[in-house]
Design a protein that fits this description.
The protein is an alpha+beta fold. 42% of the residues lie in helices and 19% in strands.
Length: 231
């Protein structure tokens, strides 16, 4: 259903592109990785338009897109966007009010490179793989890694099937004006990372790889970007 919603939004022409776990799954499947990955309970997106959209415009546009595709879900805004804050939408059953999932939408942030993905016949526009890797690399290079262990997990998945394109990843970082951190926490805070990983839940009965496998695979994958790392 989440991919159906993403396709409906794409088909409608709303100026929205997607990012996050749903795009990661599509990227992995396109590369032939069909093993179960960590589940998500929301859709992440970017809205880019010439003028800032109102709450009503965004809600109405998404609702119309779903209706046009025959998706019987109600859309309600529970958080308005602002500086460093995404708009939050709940998508729920129109009759019972049961919330199926949420959608977080960043508005008029810097435009990111995108591509068209297809998952089981559902097409949508999502961020390019190089941008996805760059965003996760940036997190891992800073102290944020302890709060976002999921980015280490995602680099582990990506390392299985996706070559690390150094030039493309560095260009993505440069285009967004981002500078990598020192990777100090990632390299020297392994026990703290292990603790964060042990607390991290893999929903839906998805198998949880051993921390050592996840950590070592991710480190090997990004080692070319870690300054002064011993081979």
């Amino acid at each position: 259903m989440m991919y159906e919603v993403m396709k409906a939004v794409y088909d409608s022409g709303i100026p929205v592109s997607f990012k996050g776990s749903m795009v990661l799954k599509a990227c992995l499947m396109e590369m032939g990785y069909f093993e179960e990955t960590r589940h998500t309970v929301d859709i992440d997106a970017n809205w880019n338009s010439d003028t800032p959209p109102s709450a009503g415009q965004m809600t109405e546009s998404i609702e119309k897109a779903l209706q046009k595709s025959g998706i019987e879900l109600g859309v309600s805004l529970y958080r308005m966007y602002g500086e460093s804050r995404s708009a939050g939408f709940e998508l729920a059953d129109k009759i019972t009010g049961e919330i199926f999932f949420t959608m977080d939408v960043d508005v008029n942030r810097p435009v990111l490179p995108t591509k068209i993905y297809e998952v089981e016949g559902f097409q949508f526009r999502g961020v390019a793989p190089s941008q996805m890797i760059a965003d996760k690399l940036l997190v891992v290079s800073t102290e944020k890694v302890f709060r976002r262990i999921k980015d280490v997990v995602d680099l582990y998945y990506l390392s299985k099937v996706f070559p690390f394109d150094t030039a493309a990843v560095r260009q993505a970082l440069n285009n967004s004006g981002k500078v990598l951190g020192t990777f100090d926490g990632f390299l020297h805070g392994t026990e703290k990372l292990r603790h964060a990983y042990e607390k991290f839940r893999f929903e839906g009965g998805v198998g949880k790889p051993a921390f050592e496998d996840v950590y070592e695979s991710a480190k090997a994958y990004i080692k070319g970007e870690i300054p002064n790392m011993e081979a």
